[in-house]
Amino acid sequence: MPQKRRSQSWMELKLAGNQCFRAGQYGEAVTVYSQSIQQLEKSGEKEKEDLAILYSNRAASYLKDGNCNECIKDCTESLKLVPFGYKALLRRASAYEALERYRQAYVDYKTVLQIDCNVPAAHDGVNRMTKALANIDGLSWREKLPPIPSVPMSVKESRAQAAVPASNSQQNSMDDNKKKAQGPAAVKKAKALKEEGNAFVRKGDYKTGLEKYTQSLGQDPSEVTTYTNRALCYLSLKMYKEAVNDCDEALLMDSANIKAFYRRAQAYKGLRNKESCIEDLNSVLKIDPSNMAAQKLLHEAQNMK
Fold first, then answer.
1. What angle do CA 278, 258, 238 make, to 5 degrees?
2. Mean pLDDT (whole number) for 102-107
């Protein structure tokens, strides 16, 4: 008789979900994370932190797949288990924003900034929500906000001690081992390497530019423009999957980054992924309706066979 196949542990399923997410298989990631959650709940090993991460990971997958309502539900479950989890708050804020529930998005973005005032995606989110709410409610927009929770000092101290770089502000937990920020000296070196990369790109030397951007990110992985710059190099070298990955990173830090959406659309066009290309271009035009380059590329993408 054939041997019965060993069932996977919740941790193995989590890692498999992470791989699906990295590969852009967001629907499959949802399925595998769901299995991991079920296994963990059955195992008797249930730890609040582990379960909260799984819900937050599944929420990220829902968000990438455009299922904002399920993303919000999972983030809320994650936050019940571990209150003030900043990744869950950021993901829920992005989902609220996509659903035009701007007041709730504003509250979550502001809560993240109480936890860590150095998260670019939260600053950008607050700015976008402030403009949107002022347009809707006028000068009295603040009076209509739900209460903004007060973050305990212990949460802020824990976040500071963790020293996680700002680039992880909206990143899936499978990337928790990413390099930590190395301090002012590393940031300065990263900036210099980035400028060197820019100079090579201006000369049309994309291969060397790519190398310089990679070195820069090794020093400071929190600079969103370095990812979009390196994506340009990958595009020029016809390394489309790598370009998609870098644009994903940029959009995790800044969910309304036009360059990241546009360059990812270019990469998807190179990969003959018509649907994703059009989706990203529509995202560009939602932010900037007069973007001529996006309009032109959208017309080309719509005529793809």
1. 65
2. 95
Q: DSSP per residue over 201-254, as a string? A: HHTT-HHHHHHHHHHHHHH-TT-HHHHHHHHHHHHHTT-HHHHHHHHHHHHHH-
Closest CA to 32 of 57, 6, 67, 53: 57
pTM for the complete prediction?
Answer: 0.54
Residue 58 near residue 34, CB atoms below 8 Å: yes
Instruction: Indicate whether 231 and 282 sit together in one domain.
Output: yes
Residue (of 73, 42, 43, 48) closest to 58 by Cα position: 73
Q: Look up the CATH number of the domain holding residue 15.
A: 1.25.40.10
* Cα distance between the two ends of the chain: 49
Q: How far apart, in whole angstroms, are the C-alpha atoms of residue 126 and residue 62? A: 22
Quote the Cα angle for 251-12-31, to 5°.
60
| pLDDT classification of 42: cutoffs 50, 70, 90 | confident
* Per-residue model confidence as pLDDT tens digits over 91-101: 999 999 999 99
For residue 205, give both structure tokens: 């030397």
Q: CA–CA separation, 270 vs 247, rounded Å?
A: 14
Q: CA-CA distance, 252 to 171, in Å (whole number)?
A: 6
Please answer whether residues 254 and 121 qualify as being in contact, where contact means their C-beta atoms are separated by less than 8 angstroms.
Answer: yes
pLDDT tens digits for range 173-210: 334 434 444 467 888 898 999 999 999 999 999 999 99
The domain in which residue 159 lies consists of 10-164
For residues 33 and 131, membership in a common domain is answered with yes
Q: What is the mean pLDDT of residues 102-106?
A: 95
| C-alpha span between 86 and 117 (Å, rounded) | 11
Q: How many domains does the chain fold into?
A: 2
